[in-house]
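Proteins fold. Shown next:

***
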Amino acid sequence: MLISGRTAGRRRGAAVLTAVVTCSTVLTGPDLAAAGGPPSPPASAPRLKWRPCVRGQAFDCATAKVPLDYRNPGGRTIELAVIKRKATGPGRRIGTLFFNPGGPGGPGTVQMPQNYPFFPREVRERFDIVSWDTRGVGHSTAVNCFARPGDAAAWEASKPAGFPVGEQERKTWIAAFEDLARRCRQRDPELLRHMSTADIAHDLDQLRRAVGDAQLTYLGTSYGSFLGATYANLFPGKVRALAVDSTIDPQAWTDHASHTAPRRPIFLRMGADLGAAAILDRFLSLCGATTTARCAFSAGSPKATRDRFDRLMRRLREHPVGTWTYGKTVDDVVSGLDIVHPGWTDLAGRLQDLWRGRVPRPPTPLPAPPVPNPYTGVEQASAILCSDSPNPRDPGVYHALEEASALRAGDTGRFWTWAAEPCATWPVAAARYRGPWNGPTAHPVLVIGTTYDPATPYSGAQAMTKELAHARLLTHHGYGHTALLNPSSCIKAYESRYFIDGTLPPAGAVCRPDTPPFSAPRPSGGVATGGGAMAGLVS
């Protein structure tokens, strides 16, 4: 999240969030009107002129112009890069499914095409699937705090990889993000003031209008779940079918809309450190319970494998392997837990290389998207996350927070603590939506949560289900970040029914992954409770 949009198509950099200077205007409706002021006239829907992204390929691209500030729709406009894959079922199209891959800062024009094969077959047949680079990101009007690409690369190289270890690295890390904040203040401060999720939700409604759909059909993963919840409460009457996967607790994200300074950063409030620690423990235990042919890092038993991991982490603190420091390795571990197949096998191989003192091989590159890879610097995620979620503003407190989190979550606690520190010095506060979250929607919301998730713990899905006015929780009793990228035929079947005709899973429905970690493929299906007949409906 954060998060990591952390989906296929890019490696997650340090997720960034910041304490936002308390804003006196709390957004409570779709007009984004200042408190006590009259609503602004609605902006006209953008016109989308679709064209093939690349000649001969199946994806179409367009550019939408939307207001920078929805309170002033006649003022400055910005551009949104949009991508579409048309419905594949001739004569069976229902409408458009909008997809946000998370992040924030995940470029939809890159990640939707790479994730497209994971969508249920019936959904691909019945819906155009549309995604976009959110404002400030990628090929849209983008936040870029560097004048030249070389400046961005030099800044990235100036800070520790992953997170800082030791006093000197902490000073270097803090100085680097203070420098980034200074650069961002000098570039486009007006854009930074309009980078909240509420602004993005208004963009999404404009895109809905542009494709001609009377109501929104939407799938949001990771951060995209918070965007979905925000949309549902700003535009409750426009919800046709809205599903969220790997879900964020909106009260944790907003610190319960408190006006007091937060004591803990966002990821610790969410419990991401505990969630990552739990799935890391399962990864090591399952690895140790199998052979090295299936998991290269296996030491012959779960306990021996966990001990090997702990020894490796202690060793890397003192003796990095090439550029693979302790901080970089923990970052890689948390990222590597996102996708079970083939991610866990590949992660085990990298850990075994490090155990033997060898630099791991670089990962196999993903297929090229139908658009050029855009610039997606860390400041793009910061601009959104730091606009929304309060975090401690004093960089000096993060070391103590790190140590406290490490006591309860080990290595992953250190990573998730420092992931929020860049927001401590972020320059601009934006108007943001902080609730309420229980606006009655035209149709119910489907919430999907995975029991072992390294970024958005299952408790977030439970909390989201309770917060929304009418929502149904579907449990994925499995591993990894998003059920979309860790396939379950059971989940796909329920999603298809929901998107096509609005049918919710039975209360208490539980699905399992098609293929357990470190195992040979097995027959698909696996509805644990509530609807075994759904298994296998979708390929």
Residues 167-187 form the longest helix (21 residues).
